[in-house]
Amino acid sequence: METKKILGIVLCISIIVLVGCVKSEDAKFIPIELEIESTDLIRIGNDEFTIPAEGGSFTICSAEKGGPFMEVNWLEFDGVEYYLTDEEVDAGYYENDWVKVVLLGTSPVKYEIVLKTNTSRERCRVRIGINCFHYSYRILSIVQQSGE
User: Fold this and answer.
1) pLDDT band of 14, cuts 50, 70, 90
2) pTM of the model as a whole
């Protein structure tokens, strides 16, 4: 009899906790604001930018000093997506033919992103996914001008 009462109480408490988390999860999650520093980017919208064909660099970090953890974990180049591996995210470094991502600091988290020269005759579309506590909350969209 005692065991059934204890199991019943544990079940009720578990349900109350789970329902409370589900109902208020979205209310509690407030994406952090980003500071984006660059002399190469030109803002054309809220999270939309252009950058010259020669490329350039910019840094992103939390606007809240000592703010919550964030990471760059997803990149897209002309429709081709790339998810950084856990090892690349942990190392704070990723590089390929068109981009370099470097973790500069951890308190606050600060990344430098370098877009390399676009030598094609077409404009390139680059998208960068930034995660906060594993919620995709921000995607920066950058159009890089053509090389000709």
Assistant:
1) low
2) 0.71
For 87-126, the pLDDT digits (tens) are 888 888 999 889 999 988 877 788 899 999 999 899 999 9
Instruction: Assess contact for 124 and 98: CB atoms under 8 A.
Output: yes
Nearest CA to 92 out of 101, 100, 83 is that of 101
For residue 115, what are the contacts with CB-CB under 8 A and spacing of at least 6? 51, 55, 56, 57, 98, 99, 126, 142, 144
* DSSP state string for the chain: -HHHHHHHHHHHHHHHHHHHHHHHHHHH--PPPEEEE-SS-EE-SSSEEEE-TT-EEEEEEESSTT---EEEEEEEETTEEEEPPHHHHHHTEEE-SSEEEEEEEETTEEEEEEEPP--SSS-EEEEEEEEETTEEEEEEEEEEPP--
Is domain 34-144 annotated with CATH 3.20.20.70?
no
Place of tokens 């390139």: 124
In this prediction, residue 81 has a pLDDT band, given cuts at 50, 70 and 90, of very high
